Structures are given as structure tokens and as C-alpha cells.
Amino acid sequence: MSNYSDILYAVDAGVATITLNRPDRLNAWCASLDADVRAGMRAATDDPAVRVIVLTGAGRGFCAGADMNVLQGIQDGDTSTRPTAPETPWDTSAHPDFQKQYSWFPAVPKPIIGAINGPCAGLGMVLALYTDIRIASDLAVFSTAFARRGLIAEHGISWLLPRLIGMANAAEILFSARRIEAAEARSLGLVNRVVPHANFATEVQSYARMLAVEVSPRSLAAMKREIWNAQLSGLGAAIDAANIDMKASFATDDFKEGVAHYLEKRPAAFSGR
């Protein structure tokens, strides 16, 4: 799929940027946006030139959550515009828990950077938490929103949020649904970095391109799988899985290149093989 109605899709220097493109509605989530993001992620996954994915929003917001028209339709008994779970899983080799309607980001075998450029609420916050690394503009504002809509801790956020910020902080944020400014989000561990808005896009792309050029794409894919799968297993299982992966990595071109470029004191030229 190359024509999208609700996202912008661009690839440059090994980085695919998927931009939620409903700025007049603060990129509120709906069925067509859901389908476009899935298609964009699939295109980035299948493109060997893409090594890193950036997910961001057009205009002044990241994602304001579910479109209120969708919520109104659900209240009126019309679910035709509500996003639905895909008929087929993202990746049949991924853990079943990462095959759900909104939990499939961890099954994408390339790192996803959430570039939180502005307001990020409700379902938008859930999606941001499923990204691997989050960089926020200093104008970003976060809210779970659910309690103020008569809803619950949706789509796995009750599992994600305590792992990021602890049980008590997660409970307080979910119960109150209050606004969280970017600086507090950083102090809590909701985001990795906060960047001045004037430099935001440049800083995000610079970091993404560093990952695309300076590290092994094979290592990135393996580490992403290891990190997410380890959340669903014990320490022993994580060690056993890593031992299998380590043995396999010794036979790869990227391992040979990783040693060679270090010894030869030159930039790396990883192939992903």
C-alpha cells in the first residue's frame, strides 16, 4: 500500500518516518488511521533500506486518543468506525501477547521511536508506551484520560505503565487522569529524553539516523525481541534465549564487521546479515 489517507510516510537515510496526519483533530485515532499505521509499519518492516522507524504526529499534537466521533458512535450502538483487531497476526513468530489489537508494536522487528511532539492522551498514550524509545518535545503533555471518560485501563496499559514508572505512580496517573508535562514525564520515566520544540524534529532524526548507521540492524532486531520477550519470562529463560542468540551471532557478517571496523578504526558498514 503506497497511498495513505491518514498518515504521511517517508524514508530517508535508513529511517522510515510515519506521521499521524489528522492535525485538525489532534490526530485522534480512528479505523482508517489504524489501518494506515499498520500498513506503514508493514512497508517499513518489508523494506530492507529501512533500519529504524519513527512514529510522530502532524501539527501540534501526537495523538489525542480515540476520535470522539468513534466514542459517540459506540455510545449510540454504532461500532462501524471503531478499529478492530486484524484477521492475521503481525508476525506468527512473535509471542502471542504481542499479537493483540494494539500490542503488536513489539512484534515489529525494527526499533520504533515514539516522537511525542505534543498532546498525547488516552489511546495515543497507550500506543506511545508500546514504542521502544520515546523522545518528547518540551511542549508534549500526557494524560491517560480513561477515568474522565468513564472507561478503564485499556489495551494493556495496566501492564505497561507499572513496568515503566512503578505501581503507585501508575495507579495515581490512571486514577486521576491528570495532565503530565514533559519534564515530569521524563522524571517519571515515561520518556527517555525531552528536547526543546524548536530542535525537536532535527534531534529525533539525528538519533534515529545514528541507530540506522552506527549499529548492527541484526543486533537491533535481536535485542528488541529479547527485551520484550523477557518481560513475559523469568531470568533463567532470558539467559537461555540470549545464549542461543549469542551463538548464532558469532557466525554473522555483522559480527565480523563489528570487529573489523573497530580494529581498522573506520565507520561501520553493517549489512544486517
UniProtKB/TrEMBL annotation:
SUPFAM superfamilies: ClpP/crotonase. Residues 74-93 are annotated as: Disordered. Gene3D superfamilies: 2-enoyl-CoA Hydratase, Chain A, domain 1. InterPro entries: ClpP/crotonase-like_dom_sf, ECH/Chromodomain_protein, Enoyl-CoA_hydra/iso. One of its GO terms (molecular function) is catalytic activity. Belongs to the enoyl-CoA hydratase/isomerase family. This is Enoyl-CoA hydratase. It comes from Sandarakinorhabdus glacialis.
